[in-house]
Amino acid sequence: MLEHVGRLVVRARRIVLVLTAAAVVGFAIAGVGVIDRLSGGGFVDAAAESTKAAQQLDQRFGAGQPNFVLVVTSPSGGKVDDAQVQRLGTDLTARLSREGGVLSASSYWTLGSPQSLRSKDDRAALVLARLAGDEDAVRETAKGLRERFDDQDGLKIQAAGSSVVYGELTDILQKDLIRAELFAFPLTLLLLLAIFGGLVAASLPLLIGAVAVTGTLAVLSVVSSMTDVSVFALNLTSALGLGLAIDYGLFILSRFREELATGIEPHEAVRRTVNSAGRTVVYSAVTVALSLAVLLIFPLYFLTSFAYAGIAVVLLAAFSAVVVLPAALAVLGHRVNALAIPRLRRKAKPAASEHGNFWGRLVAAVMRRPIPFATAVIVVLLALGSPFLQAQFGLPDDRVLPASAESRQANDVLRDQFSSRETEPAFVVATEPVQPAEVTSYAERLSRIGGVARVDASTGSYAAGQRVAAPSPQSAQYANTGGTWLSVVPAVETYSPDGEQLVRDIRSTEAPAPVLVGGRSAELVDTRGAITDRLPLGLGLMAAAVGILLFLFTGSVLIPLKALILNLLSLTATFGAMVWVFQEGHLRWLVGDFAVTGTLDITMPVLMFCVAFGLSMDYELFLLSRIREEWLAGAGNVDSVIRGVERTGALITGAALIVAVVFLSFVSSGVTFLKLLGLGLALAVLVDATIIRGILVPAFMRLAGRANWWAPRPLRALHALIGLRESSDTREPAPDLANADDRADLDLVPRSVDKTPG
């Protein structure tokens, strides 16, 4: 099929380029304003108990967690109980309750001066409000309220709450995208210049990136009109689109220049390039897309959004690399080397080049002593990954924001100056009528749980198993004819192991009726369950899909198994770094200051695994394609591996370096989990492209020998029937070369080591 694609692209090269230019313009128009249609949440399972509890609380009782909080402070030294501050605070609460989109508002001054809503130094108090609508509506309402309720009448007013946090996340994201692009694009172009030595060749991968990124923005615009899509998917669209454009562009361009160096005419070089490197790009794109598709099984639209964006950008990048870029090369011909920079220009070597570069010498050394090399690398990778055994997980809160963010500062005041987490209570919803005596008994039991500061119910407030306050007029909100609910105010950090244990203890406490437990800590427990329950299925699907694809690509049974194991090893250092840097707080001077919470965002390991696994398979396929070409041409096992790594090592490393630069641009973000994503993926790509491809893959293939290409007879027949070969020119090893592998081994490996052929 790719032979026909190559011929068609050459014949219709100018039409392809004109249609592509028109498509990019259309994509750009369709994608305008897409960020305004994306959402800032998506970290909670819509079918989880905590989500159902929130829905029941809203529908049955018209209540819910306060999602907009004002921290009101008297900077002049006055106390919150002073007459003037009381008057101003009461007036502030009343004005807030009359604002559009505000369902309810209460404060320290309107609720009978409860101690929990007053700071330890008596200089600050809280105003709690609940805003109407979905995440996007709440975010927009909060944005307007922040502008209207600023410092006034001698009071310092700081806004907090989930609505403000998500709003600031979106604002920071837009600035981060611009900053990342300003950092990544110029540096990427410089690195491409260093690799290709000419401005024309260096700019061509960016053409693929433009098609992929603009096309994905248009796709996200359409998808967001049908379902929730996370705003953070834009980051992956930008980085992955540019990264894959670099990878695929380098593969196609380097092969085209290599074909030209043999002396054939440009159009024939394009056809051969599409048929060889194009095949690798297609397999790579399908593999990366399948890796990202695994995210669709997790019921969090934060993760599924990355699947939508990732799959779209991968397929568009592959299409551009196999169709659009070859069309441009067919037009340019030898002018692909135009605008060369003399000091940087390197002539492409023909396919029959001799061994001798750094990668060839490294692989030859590895294959002489495969066991010591492999053992040393595996031990180092496992040691680097060991910190992940102590990983603790949470969900994003205000602490992912930079210290300069208003909501981060306000929430820091809440943590430091207030004795309990009044703005983030757990809530227990009973959907059946419960007698007052049973409510009292249940509230007393809940208040004895470790980590509970207070329990509020229709029968009063409780602490340490005793009623500490009689029912007030506000207590009526906790019950109606359909049931009752209780507010459990925690004394521990919401997103923490203590917060999770609190939820488990609440759910295990005997209740007088069926109950649903919700709140921030409950969301963390439910999200962890949603991910861990589906993780085995996701890993199984990914392993099966990638294994089948690699078999179709290579015709081997052993190579897919090897690829899966080595790709898992390549991620160990990345996962260890996640804990060592972001959970424990090391290297903050290097990656930028961030709040050390002692936890990692629970969605990040899943996201990073799927993205990094797909990218590592990208390099695996490119390397294997060259090794297999040499093997099918008659080279022995050792010689084919050395030649394959020698001819792809510099290119894979260059591609990985550029992709790492793109992801490292995330480190400049003010959002902690984007820093983590950028640093983790950059490290994963670099480790995979160097240590794995330069040492572990050659060591494994040396030890496996001719078994690398073995498959049972039925599978060999299936592979031949499907006909998935590189080109019509490739051939099986000739009969007189059956022992070439042995001869190559004897040339490279001491006789004392190589006692067994192959």
Alpha-beta classification: alpha+beta
CATH superfamily of the largest domain: Multidrug efflux transporter AcrB transmembrane domain
Secondary structure: helix percent: 55-70%
pLDDT averaged residue by residue = 85
Give the beta-strand count. 13
Number of domains: 3
| CATH architecture annotation of the largest domain | Up-down Bundle
Low-confidence spans:
348-354, 725-758
The CATH class designation of the largest domain is: Mainly Alpha
CATH structural fold name of the largest domain: Multidrug efflux transporter AcrB transmembrane fold
- Radius of gyration from the alpha-carbon trace, in angstroms: 30 Å
Shape: elongated
Count of helical stretches: 24
How far apart lie the N and C ends? 35 Å
Strand content: 5-15%
* Major β-sheet annotation: 7 strands, antiparallel
Could you outline the blueprint of secondary structure elements for this entry?
Elements: H1 2-11, H2 13-30, H3 49-61, E1 68-73, H4 83-97, E2 102-107, E3 124-131, H5 135-148, E4 156-160, H6 162-196, H7 199-224, H8 233-261, H9 266-293, H10 301-332, H11 358-368, H12 370-385, E5 393-394, H13 406-417, E6 426-430, H14 436-447, E7 452-457, E8 460-463, E9 466-469, E10 479-480, E11 483-490, H15 497-508, E12 515-518, H16 520-554, H17 558-570, H18 572-583, H19 588-591, E13 600-601, H20 603-632, H21 637-664, H22 672-704, H23 713-722, H24 740-748
Parallel strand pairs: 5-13
Antiparallel strand pairs: 1-3, 1-4, 2-3, 6-11, 6-12, 7-8, 7-11, 8-9, 10-11
